[in-house]
Amino acid sequence: MLDIAFIRHNTDAVREAIKNKRADVDLDALLAADKERRELLQELEGKRARKNEIAQAIPKATKEDRPGLIEEGKAAKTAIEELEPKLAEIVSRFEDLMLRVPSLPRPEVPVGVGEDDNVEVKKVGSPRAFDFEPKDHVALMDAFGMVAWDGPRKFAGERSYALVGLGALLERAVLNLAIDTLVDRGLTLVTPPVMVRERALVGTGFFPVGKAEAYAITADDLFLVGTSEVPLVSLHCDTTLDLAKLPVRYAGLSPCFRREAGAHGKDTRGLYRVHQFTKVEQVVFCAPDEKVAEEEHYKLLGNAEAILEKLEIPYRVALACTGEIGLGQTRKHEVESWMPGRNAYSETHSCSTLGDFQARRSNIRVRLADGTLGYPYTLNNTAIASPRILIALLENHQNADGSITLPKALVPYMRGMEKLTPA
RNA sequence: GGAGAGAUGACCGAGUGGCCGAAGGUGCAUGACUGGAAAUCAUGUGUACGGGCAACCGUACCGAGGGUUCGAAUCCCUCUCUCUCCGCCA
User: Fold this and answer.
1) Block mean pLDDT (10 aa), chain A, length 423
2) Which nucleotide is nearest to A371 (CA to C1')?
3) Are A309 and A398 in contact (CB under 8 A)?
4) Could you tell me the residue ranges of all domains in chain A?
5) Is the distance between the Cβ of A5 and the closest atom of strand B smaller than 7 Å?
6) Which residues pair with A249 in a beta bridge?
7) N or C end of chain A, less CB within 10 A?
8) Is A162 strand, coil or helix?
């Protein structure tokens, strides 16, 4: 969320951001609602002031004056009661619009509409040249019995799967490698709630715009989160953080649930796009300072890269263009891992700075050095997301004989196995 | 799931219809005293929104929302959260 005063004074910049981010919000309607809201608020507050005056006068008034004042008080009350619902209606319209206004992209973010406009900033390793016909992850995993497909798709629905045996062991291994890497680098591991109230999703910017993407537990008014970013940021909702303790850096481990609304029929083969996965996510709260946020951003990116390097997976990093970054994000890097089966770099990580967008919505503040209250900046980045990362891992490390050589760093997490050989 | 108790400012805690944005204490800040400190004394010390160049003014907020009343921290209803007991359970 942006500050309404900022929107009023920087209308052109906000309009530009709406256009470039392809956001769906009527800025003129918002400005009109704001004007209406303030005018009505002034009128209402004037009437309330009068009401308070009368109420204070009554106990001091003489017996004779009292009935008249009480009548006046009743009239004031009626006038207020007429205005209140009108204001409530305008405020609710105003707030709904406010929640749809995007944050402003940082100046370095390229203007563009789609993936093709992202700017590659780095490439590490290079796609492996196979001297045999490489298998895709589905064939590889089937050869090892790593996944159960048919049963889950019958009893749990489309895009369901179960990791089995070596598949499940591999998932555990990459998660643990990621966790250890982050803990070594000073992040605090958190296993948060994954069923949350609507406010957590509004607070982190996923609602109202992305509501169709979340699973709802209607009986209890809860939603399943699509990332632990939601509970980790919400951890500090309604509180004031201590500037001296920032930055706060968390590593969240959780299952993630996504309806993939609007992706029907897309990436249906294998484990690339599934409704439920497990992710280690990094979340940072830092001082509201662009320089500090930038440092933290690249630190998060570096952590993800370190994990990919341990897994010996070739990858590239791209700076996402305005059309590809989310409502609240001011800067986003995508890390794409090489997947031979798709013959493409595919997104496995996403590193974002959100400025004070989430902090405002979640009512998280920080006492600044000058004693005033501000909003901390938040950032997040994937550390590892499984099973998607298993695609890159298996496909890149396969051998002509169908075996898979495990990267050295993963061996201790795989009970000492250096190589997987199909039975 | 059943029964009960509670939620007041940074913290503790008073307050059962108007004099309460809220006593008192602690903490914190500034000043006095001191060689310096402690102690002591004095003053100050919430947030949001709106108006104003500003000083400042207005409104709202005593867990949240609604109601009664001329007037609600205080009375009524609903919800949330915390605690205790019973049941169930990994």
Assistant:
1) 91 94 93 93 92 89 86 90 90 91 95 93 94 95 95 93 96 98 97 92 92 90 94 90 89 95 86 96 95 97 97 97 95 96 95 95 86 90 96 97 96 96 87
2) B29
3) no
4) 4-98, 115-420
5) yes
6) A284
7) C
8) strand
Which pLDDT belongs to residue A61? 84
Check if A197 is active-site.
no
Distance separating alpha carbons of residues A373 and A353, to the nearest angstrom: 21
Q: Distance between terminal CA atoms of chain A?
A: 55
Q: Helices A27-57 & A66-98, crossing angle to 10 degrees?
A: 160
How many DSSP H helices and E strands does chain A contain? 12, 18
The set of strand B positions with any atom below 7 Å of a protein CB reads 18-19, 47-51, 58-60, 70-71
Residue nearest to nucleotide B51 (CA to C1'): A42
Q: What are phi and psi of A336, to 5 degrees?
A: -115, 125
The type of residue at A312 is E
Q: Is the dihedral of CA A402, A338, A352, A215 positive or negative?
A: negative
Contact between the CB of A423 and strand B at under 7 Å: no
Residues 6+ apart with CB under 8 A from A282: A182, A187, A249, A250, A251, A252, A300, A303, A304, A379, A380, A381, A382, A383
Nearest C-alpha neighbor of A277 from the set A174, A203, A130: A174
A11 neighbors A20 (Cβ within 8 angstroms): no
- Report ipTM for this prediction: 0.85
CATH of domain A115-420: 3.30.930.10
Place of tokens 């989430």: A358
Residue found under tokens 């490390």: A397
What's the CATH number for A4-98?
1.10.287.40
Neighbours of A131 (CB within 10 A): 7
Measured CA to CA, the distance from residue A382 to residue A335 in angstroms comes to 9
A75 in contact with nucleic chain B (CB within 7 A): no
CB A32 within 8 A of CB A97: no
Cα–Cα distance measured from residue A49 to residue A182, given in angstroms and rounded to the nearest whole number: 56
User: Of these residues, A350, A352, A362, A386, which one is catalytic?
Assistant: A350
Tell how strand A248-257 and strand A188-190 pair up.
parallel
Tell me the C-alpha distance between A281 and A349, whole Å. 9
What pLDDT, on a 0 to 100 scale, did the predictor assign at position A282? 98
